[in-house]
Amino acid sequence: MTWEIGLPLPFGTTLPDNPTDAQLVESCRRGDLRAFEHLYTMHSPKMKSLAFHLLNSRSDAEDAVQETFLKVHKAMGTFQANSALSTWIYRILINCCYDALRKRQRLAEKPMPGQLSTDSKLPLKIALERAILALNERQRLVFLMFEVEGLKHSEIAGVLEVPEGTSRAWLFEAKLALKKMLTEAAR
Amino acid sequence: MIFECRDLDRALSNPDLLAELQMHMRDCEGCRNQYRIWTEISSTARELHQEWESPALWPNILAAVEAQRPEPKHWYMEWKLWAATAAAAATIACVLMYWPHAPAAPSPGIHSGDQDFLTEQALKDVEKNEAAYRRSIDELSRLAQPKLASASSPLLLNYREKLLMLDSAILETRSSIAQNEFNAHLQSDLADLYREKRQTLQEVLTDAQRN
After folding, report:
1. Does the pTM of the predicted model rise above 0.80?
2. I need a surface site. Which of B28, B54, B115, B176 has the fewest CB within 10 A?
3. Shortest Cα distance from B177 to chain A (angstroms)?
4. Chain A: residue nearest B195 by CA?
């Protein structure tokens, strides 16, 4: 159920079925919460999943997504159209996740890379999940965004503010590191 | 080129070396195993995407957005402001018109002896704002209707009762306004009743979201 607490409801204004970034930004700036909800519906599933992999907790992931949308709402007026809206939102999400990590010091709870080699019978999915935690920050981010959440290299490059080729190179590095860890674990 | 195990990683990033890698893997179990893991990483990674229901997330975001907003500029406030400004302007105009000059013919629609009346233009503005405000309250009513229809808790039953009373008072006030449409006091009372109704409906919806 959606409703707007601060009246008036925007009667007479309609949001197209597939609004462009510019239309969404414009509507959000006018205070149209349906445009904001559209953004939420479009991006929140992947955002929750990405935040979950970064924070290792569903409730923390939801907090990060909530924080992200609040920041997006607050800063919508300052959004520059020189990057895609989604790129901007993911960048804010990642910053929120890192803020949360710093605050809650969850990094200490993550399994260390050394733990991987002792678990030779783990199904690949679980082994991979653990191995991802042992990647360095940039490799993990690129791997999660590309392989797990299906973002394109052009989008990842925008989020991380690096050239597209760098995103590809970091993904390759990440996969090589994972292959190494998983091969050792399988021995 | 003689393909060796150490060339594997290079071959993974260079499609030109793929044919040689395939040849090499026929006799090398180690490389075969590594290549299998390499190909499985991507397919397994897609299974790591997490989906779960978060029914409270969007309402929480909305509530937080609302809390973050500056004090909303309510329509009823504008409406009341219009009414008050118009009444004041009309009073001043009336005083200027009647004093110290000789009495002039009364303007159409102005009731003699009534100090709190509205001008034609102000009345149009008030009616326009009221119509928009009523539409937004009707929308809230529509959202709250299912909750009220199936009300079982004492709180919801109270809300339902209160809304019935408010509707009745609104009807009564509107009927009085129809007989004396330039009366700013009545318009102000009506605005108060609408505000109360809107607040009650919001409480119903908030209560429904909590439960």
Report:
1. no
2. B115
3. 23
4. A7
